[in-house]
Amino acid sequence: MALMITDECINCDVCEPECPNEAISQGAEIYEIDPGKCTECVGHYDTPQCREVCPVDCIPMNPDYRESRAELERKYQRLMSAKS
Predict the structure, then answer these.
(1) Of 23, 24, 39, 55, which one has the fewest beta carbons inside 10 Å?
(2) Long-range contact list for 73-81, CB < 8 A, 24+ apart?
């Protein structure tokens, strides 16, 4: 399941550089996560790095993008293949 950033975001800029898939970007008002790129850090880390550094705990699971661990691993493989 992809993650999302809620409107509780304080735009502290700590999550964006932590994302290994470059899924986080500045939106119109707050940071946003591209669900097509978010793998919850599967393939890179054991836990989502954006959630580890977020000081206000505003990065829950996105209920609109339910994915199993296997689906996240396949997404990671696709993203890495596209980078090559």
Answers:
(1) 55
(2) 73/39, 73/42, 73/43, 75/39, 75/42, 76/21, 76/39, 76/42, 76/43, 76/44, 77/43, 79/21, 79/37, 79/39, 80/43
Distance CA 52, CA 10 (A): 15
Judge contact between 20 and 31, C-beta under 8 A: no
pTM above 0.85, yes or no: yes
